[in-house]
Predict the 3D structure of the following.
Amino acid sequence: MPTVSLSDPIRPPSSAVLAAARAHLAALAKPLGALGELEELAAWVSSCQGVCPARPLDRVRAVVLAGDHGVTHYGVSAYPREVTPAMVRAFVAGNAGVSVLARQHGVSLQVYDVAVDDELAGVPAAVTAYKVRRSSEPIQLRDALSADEVHWALRAGERIANDQISAGADLLIMGDMGIGNTTPAAALIAASFGCRAAEITGRGTGVDDAALQHKIALIDTALARVGGRASDPVQRLAALGSADLAAGVGFLVTAARSGVPVLLDGLVSVAEAVVAEDLAPGTIAWCAAGHRSTEPAQQLALDKLGLRPVLDLGLRLGEGSGAVAAVPLLRSAVLLMREMALLADLAPPGA
Amino acid sequence: MPTVSLSDPIRPPSSAVLAAARAHLAALAKPLGALGELEELAAWVSSCQGVCPARPLDRVRAVVLAGDHGVTHYGVSAYPREVTPAMVRAFVAGNAGVSVLARQHGVSLQVYDVAVDDELAGVPAAVTAYKVRRSSEPIQLRDALSADEVHWALRAGERIANDQISAGADLLIMGDMGIGNTTPAAALIAASFGCRAAEITGRGTGVDDAALQHKIALIDTALARVGGRASDPVQRLAALGSADLAAGVGFLVTAARSGVPVLLDGLVSVAEAVVAEDLAPGTIAWCAAGHRSTEPAQQLALDKLGLRPVLDLGLRLGEGSGAVAAVPLLRSAVLLMREMALLADLAPPGA
């Protein structure tokens, strides 16, 4: 039984604690503002926790939501869809990129098959417990999901978030795996902000110029097919999204409603955040951005959401990797706030 | 007896291993280049170690070279010089900003008084073992150091580096502490690249507009006083530098000659790297940049040196803090290289 429903209101992080945290940071033994963006991160974590100084971010839990996409039958990706189930097995084996980073930082990592186009025989039952369907539909031809499927996927994300929160989470991380997933993610962002595909479409895993032009045309076709119906966030997810993206939206809204901060990763998680904010205003106040990816749609959406990413290293692996790589910096922000001397405590001259 | 002399030649990191490392990274289970700048960092560490994949960066050792500056009697800083010895005591107590970060990341941290204008009574003997003098002279009026003092300071830096390397170091970090030290650091960079002070002078710990104009005028006065004599790196250090900056140069050259990679921090360490490269060409090949500070001189020098910083978070604390905060990302780069699956190893579809 989930403790939080998608229909509950979202309370904001504490503005009183935010102010107290900024005052505390200003009193540390350093020039005013000398910790740069680490200061705003520390204050944000404090305000989410409702306590100053913030508690250490010991329990960080990352999830990877995996799914396939009908568009991969139409030449939008540099890799075949069979890579998606193979990568799910790599997460289970612990040798995907994000697996290495999660181990380094003591971050719990769980992959969920939301819509992989494979039975994934033999993987642990927890991986497939919230599967919604095999793949989603090609968005340039028809809706990705039925209305029922959107709701099942949102509910799957809600349950995944509740499982993670019940296990104890100071911070959640939203990761993705799915060949082709930058196409629906870019389409959702274009529809959300009224952009043309050419303004925001990137190379994903690394398609060439011709495939990029094809991807742009496919996204514009999808946007034209859907038209004004995309103004509603649930219909937008059905028409242009996918089951894994919808589950991500449910995950983010649930985390925010539960008062657990989330670190976003690349394009896919940021697209989910954009839709989540439309669906449940106030969600974004519980999100920070782990890194700036190479995808133009992610950069545009971060700007629109007012999020400044922690890292800017040209990462484009997905999997939650950029966010997990940024975890030590959030932890640094909190530890500096907790452990630095105060200016007032510095030894007087000659002491 | 130091094992390496400042007059020994500097061999470059292995180009053969660099190529092998890039090939190894290209074979990992990810799109080509998807780890962005982490791939170049991993390849650089590999080439420095001469082994592929690189060994983990377990033993990271940071030093903070502390000193005072005659210019602080002339209104270039927002804080009084008495803060320098107080902060040395904070490093010893373990509650400076970089102390917190070093503890978080298991980085060894040692502060050295190279030229603090205080006796530092009661601090451990190791802190003052390489002290060159009390403060350095005001560079707008006269040379910061005598020729002998420059050589003593370079030798102090050499000995400090050798001590750290003897203790076992996979990576060294160069930090600084000294009220007023952005003034000689900016002067060294301006002289090295032929800039006027207005192009590169920043606010240091946070001076106001009037003090910034005064700082610019003071640096221009110093540059005019020294003239063409600054083209020689040792004379540049004597005329425009300080004992702590000269020790930093000796430290960097010694690390490079010993084949130990160094992560640079903010303006002061980057100014030292600029002079070190003039003094001992090839030093920079052993250096990476930990972070982009808010000081324009640091940004200009990084561009000139061809170094792209790992972090860009608006930090301006000094102390080595930006570099120590970046350590987890260098470690991530190496671990990803070592532990990720190869594309060729991914489970075949349906396996």
About this structure: Chain A has two domains: 15-54+337-346, 60-329. The longest strand of chain A covers residues 60-67. Chain A touches chain B through 61 residues (CB under 8 Å).
